[in-house]
Design a protein that fits this description.
CATH topology of one domain: Rossmann fold
Organism: Rhipidura dahli
Keywords: Membrane, Methyltransferase, Mitochondrion, S-adenosyl-L-methionine, Transferase, Transmembrane, Transmembrane helix
Structural class: alpha/beta
CATH class of one domain: Alpha Beta
Distance between the termini: 123 Å
Strand content: 15-25%
GO cellular component, one term: mitochondrial membrane
Main location: mitochondrion
CATH superfamily of one domain: Vaccinia Virus protein VP39
Strand order of the largest sheet: 3-2-1-4-5-7-6
Number of strands: 7
Oligomer: single chain
Number of helices: 7
Order of helices and strands: HHEHEHEEHEEEHH
Helix content: 40-55%
Protein name: ATP synthase subunit C lysine N-methyltransferase
Largest sheet: 7 strands, mixed
CATH architecture of one domain: 3-Layer(aba) Sandwich
Length: 219
């Protein structure tokens, strides 16, 4: 009786230990698979969902036609270039290949790191820079060429910001959506590939202001 009771007690303990081992392996496998899924989600999510911005600005890659239209608007232009909301860096990289010193601002860190990798892969990393930054907290005053992939909700406020910050020789190139008040000096492309170029000296009336100031300085 005592032996049988002891044996009876030992058997559940052995089964319990074996069950614990199985449970432990199960937890390890679950953790491993879960960790892999989390890692994949962390990498993939920024490419399909919008980053957090003052105005929701989803990442939609520029098409080949859009890139060519932007480059067309940059012909005979010089100076520094900035892409506001640079995404995966394709506009910045394309501009760098044309000889521009090009900079991209993007709030999504995954896209910024990927942009830096692409610039390195394409051999233009020395002529490009990518920053993780909120566009509303950056001054664009020292850029002469500005590329914007925006959404309608942000364009009025961005129009005012750029007009306040940029010099008269700046050109702003808007993709997909035009600015609400400025009249474009050049337009190319069709549909979603349409690109509008604004020469700030005309939008702001810099030429008129300079004519008004000249007689006063001469007198």
């Amino acid at each position: 009786g005592a032996m049988s009771q002891a044996a009876a007690k030992e058997i559940p303990q052995e089964q319990g230990e074996d069950g614990s081992r199985r449970s432990g392996w199960g937890l390890l496998v679950t953790a491993g698979v879960g960790g892999t899924l989390v890692a994949l989600y962390a990498v993939a999510t920024p490419f399909v969902t919008p980053a957090l911005r003052k105005v929701c600005l989803p990442f939609v890659p520029a098409t080949a036609a859009q890139i060519q239209n932007v480059l067309k608007m940059l012909e005979n232009r010089s100076g520094s270039l900035v892409d506001i909301g640079s995404g995966d860096g394709r506009i910045v990289i394309a501009a760098a290949k044309k000889g521009f010193r090009a900079v991209g601002y993007e709030l999504n860190p995954w896209l910024v790191w990927y942009s830096r990798y692409r610039a390195w892969r394409d051999g233009v990393h020395q002529n490009t820079e990518f920053y993780i930054s909120d566009l509303w907290k950056v001054s664009f005053s020292h850029y002469t060429n500005v590329v914007v992939f925006g959404v309608p909700q942000m364009m009025p406020q961005l129009e005012k910001k750029l007009e306040d910050e940029l010099e008269c020789n700046a050109r702003i190139i808007a993709c997909r959506f035009p600015f609400p008040c400025w009249i474009p000096d050049h337009t190319t492309g069709e549909g979603i590939d349409t690109v509008w170029a604004y020469d700030l000296k005309r939008s702001r009336g810099c030429e008129t202001k300079s004519l008004e100031i000249t007689p006063e300085t001469e007198s």
